[in-house]
Specification:
Layout (H helix, E strand, L loop, with lengths): L1 H12 L6 E12 L9 E17 L4 E6 L4 E6 L11 H14 L7 E7 L9 H17 L5 H15 L7 H8 L4 E6 L5 E5 L5 E7 L7 H20 L13 H7 L5 H25 L3 H17 L6 H11 L4 E7 L6 E7 L3 H7 L1 H7 L4 E5 L6 E3 L5
Parallel strand pairs: 3-5
Antiparallel strand pairs: 1-2, 1-12, 2-5, 2-6, 3-4, 6-7, 8-10, 8-11, 9-10
Helix pairs in contact: 2-3, 2-4, 3-4, 3-5, 4-5, 6-8, 8-9
Bound molecules: alpha-D-galactopyranose (GLA).
C-alpha cells in the first residue's frame, strides 16, 4: 500500500521525490457501544487496514489533493478554502487542513494523494482514519508538535463541523491512539486511556461485513443522542450530580426508569449495562477469560438489538450464524449499526466453518459478506517508503 500510494503520487504529480507517507488504520469496537457520548467506556482496537496519504510540501500556498478511490482532484489556495460538501471525502481532509491552518500550524501548500485498503462506509471508521492520517501527514510536512490527544480532538471537531456528524470521540481516538497488539480502553469523560495487550492464543477477532449500506444511521444516531439526554434530565431529578448516563447505575434505572417513555427507558438500560459490560470485558481479557469476554460480546449484541435498537435483520443473522458455529465464543454488531460489520471471537480453526455457514446469509439476503480475520492490527503514524 505504501509503495502504491507513492506511485499514485508520482503518476499524478510527476515524481515522488521527497514524498512522505502517513497512515491511520480503521477501528473495530470490541465492546462499549453507544457509550462514548454518554461519557462512558469504550474498548475498540485498530484493524489491519487503513488510509494512506503520500504528501509533499510546496513553497507556495497551492493545495492539491487527489483521491485514488474517488478519482478526483481538488485544488485551492491555502487561505481561500470554500467549504467542501459535508461528508464528501475531501470535507474530512480539507477540514483537518483548514483547522491546522487556523491554529497556525500550516502556512504553505502541498500536494497529496490518498489511497487505502480499508472498506469505506462499512462502519470501520474510514472517515476517522482519513482525518487522523491527514493530521499525521501534515505534521510530517509542517513539522509541528501536537499532543496526539489534541489531534484526536481536532479530528472529532472536523467530523462535527465539516461532516455534520455529532459523533462521540471513540473513532478518532481509536484510529489515532490505538497501538498494534493492543485494544484501547478509553474513559470518554476524562479521556484517560490504557492500551491493553490482546493475547488471544488460538482465538482471533473475525470481522464480517454485512455489505448493508448504513443509510438510516445518521438520523437514528442523532435521535439516540437526544433520547439519552432526555434520560439524563429525568434522572437528575433524583440526583443533581448526574451529568451523563455514565453517572447512572442500574438501581436507579430499575427504580425510576419506568417513569420514562418506554423507548427512552430501554435506551438508558442499554447504556448503563453496556458501560458495566465494557469494564467487565476488559477485566476478562486481562485475566485471559476469553469465554467471559465472548459472553459479554453476545450480551452486548442483544442489548443493542432489543434495547438500543440499532441492529438490523442482516446483522442479527450474522450474529446468529456465528453462534451456531462451534468454536465461536461471542459475536456482536460493531459501530453505529444499521449495517456495517459484526465482530466475533473465534477459535482460529473454526473460521472455515463460520465462512461456510455464511452461505445461509447469502441465500437469504443475496449479499456476499466479506470475512476478515484480524491477525495484526496497525497503528497510526508516518511510514517509510521503500524505494528499492
Ligand atoms: C459511531 C460514532 C462513535 C460511537 C459509535 C457507537 O461510530 O462515530 O462516536 O458513538 O458510533 O458506539
Amino acid at each position: 500500500m505504501i509503495e502504491s500510494v507513492a506511485q499514485g503520487f508520482a503518476s499524478k504529480f510527476g515524481d515522488a521525490d521527497g514524498v512522505v507517507v502517513a497512515m491511520a488504520p480503521g477501528r473495530v469496537n470490541l465492546i462499549g457501544e453507544y457509550t462514548d457520548f454518554n461519557d462512558g467506556f469504550v474498548f475498540p482496537m485498530t484493524v489491519d487496514s487503513g488510509i494512506y496519504i503520500a504528501v509533499r510540501a510546496r513553497d507556495d500556498k497551492t493545495v492539491r489533493v487527489a483521491s485514488i478511490r474517488y478519482d478526483e482532484l481538488v485544488e485551492y489556495e491555502l487561505d481561500e478554502l470554500e467549504t467542501p460538501k459535508p461528508g464528501s471525502w475531501c470535507s474530512y481532509v480539507l477540514g483537518v487542513v483548514e483547522e491546522l491552518r487556523l491554529r497556525g500550524h500550516l502556512t504553505h501548500g502541498f500536494e497529496a494523494v490518498i489511497d487505502g485498503n480499508l472498506h469505506l462506509g462499512a462502519g470501520l471508521s474510514s472517515s476517522a482514519a482519513l482525518e487522523v492520517a491527514t493530521g499525521v501527514s501534515m505534521q510530517q510536512i509542517a513539522r509541528f508538535e501536537m499532543d496526539p490527544v489534541d489531534m484526536v480532538k481536532l479530528c472529532q471537531y472536523v467530523e462535527h463541523n465539516y461532516a455534520n456528524v455529532m459523533c462521540g470521540i471513540m473513532d478518532q481516538f481509536a484510529c489515532g491512539i490505538g497501538r498494534s497488539g493492543h485494544a484501547l480502553l478509553l474513559d470518554c469523560r476524562s479521556l484517560d486511556y490504557e492500551n491493553v495487550p490482546v493475547e488471544l492464543g488460538d482465538y482471533r477477532f473475525v470481522i464480517v461485513n454485512s455489505e448493508v449500506e448504513r443509510s438510516l444511521a445518521l438520523s437514528a444516531y442523532n435521535t439516540r443522542r437526544a433520547e439519552c439526554q432526555e434520560a439524563v434530565e429525568h434522572f437528575r431529578h433524583y440526583d443533581s450530580s448526574i451529568r451523563a448516563l455514565r453517572d447512572v447505575d442500574m438501581d436507579l434505572v430499575e427504580k425510576h426508569g419506568g417513569e420514562l417513555p418506554p423507548v427512552v427507558h430501554r435506551r438508558c438500560r442499554h447504556v448503563v449495562a453496556e458501560n458495566e459490560r465494557a469494564l467487565a470485558a476488559v477485566a476478562a481479557l486481562k485475566s485471559g477469560s476469553l469465554d467471559a469476554f465472548g459472553r459479554l460480546m453476545t450480551e452486548s449484541h442483544r442489548s443493542l438489538r432489543d434495547d438500543f435498537e440499532v441492529s438490523c435483520e442482516q446483522l442479527d443473522l450474522l450474529v446468529e450464524l456465528a453462534h451456531d458455529t462451534q468454536g465461536v465464543l461471542g459475536s456482536r454488531m460493531t459501530g453505529a449499526g444499521f449495517g456495517g460489520c459484526t465482530v466475533s471471537l473465534v477459535q482460529k480453526d473454526a473460521v472455515p466453518e463460520l465462512i461456510n455457514r455464511l452461505g445461509d446469509y447469502t441465500a437469504r439476503f443475496n449479499l456476499a459478506p466479506g470475512v476478515f480475520v484480524l491477525e495484526r492490527n496497525l497503528e497510526a503514524g508516518p511510514v517509510a517508503i521503500d524505494y528499492s
